[in-house]
Amino acid sequence: MIASLTGQIQYIGSDRCVVDVSGVGYEVFLSTEGLSRLPEKGAQLFLHIHTSVREDAIVLFGFAEPVEKEMFLTLKTVSGIGPKLALAVLSGMQIDMLCQAISGEDIKTLTTISGVGKKTAERICVELKDKVGSMQSTSSVSTGGTVTGKETSALADALSALVNLGYPDPAARAAFADVKKRVGDETFTAMTIEELIKEGLRAIS
After folding, report:
1. Which residue among 37, 63, 89 closes a domain?
2. Contact criterion met (CB below 8 Å) for 37 and 64
3. Which pLDDT does position 83 carry in this prediction?
4. Residues 6+ away with beta carbon under 8 Å from 43
5. Does position 47 have pLDDT exceeding 70, yes or no?
6. pTM (2 decimals)?
């Protein structure tokens, strides 16, 4: 089974990309947020991979962070949820918010995700509410490093500010990922809300 890929981005589509690894192009399906985090065509990247083997096809699903892959695999354990729907769930909500909705049995929030009806949302809550705690504590913002726990206060406020200005949540997170990569972990962690908003807007423009 293919567990990861390191290569050059050859193509980026609406729901997938093609990664060139030593002359072989691998088609990889990603969530909406995963696609938003991709560097430009021609750049190098690393993806965690889940290989789905069917009778008629071998399909690769890609993830920037281990916790995304873990959530994907956990969602697939729910009765009636296959890989495509699991990816749709990841596309519809950030992992920390998804964990909160599941642990809090927030059916209304879960049904806002495309493809998730009331019965599916109920099954997700019943089967996963005791399994998502660890993922919530380790969920990440960017491929440049994990942004969790105690350092998320200023970042969470800055993210909220960009979303309130009309920018999609995944795009805002990708912008802050770019800022973090550019300035480094130490500087990024020390930035104020105002500085984060200013740099986030510069990165997203």
Report:
1. 63
2. yes
3. 93
4. 8, 9
5. yes
6. 0.66
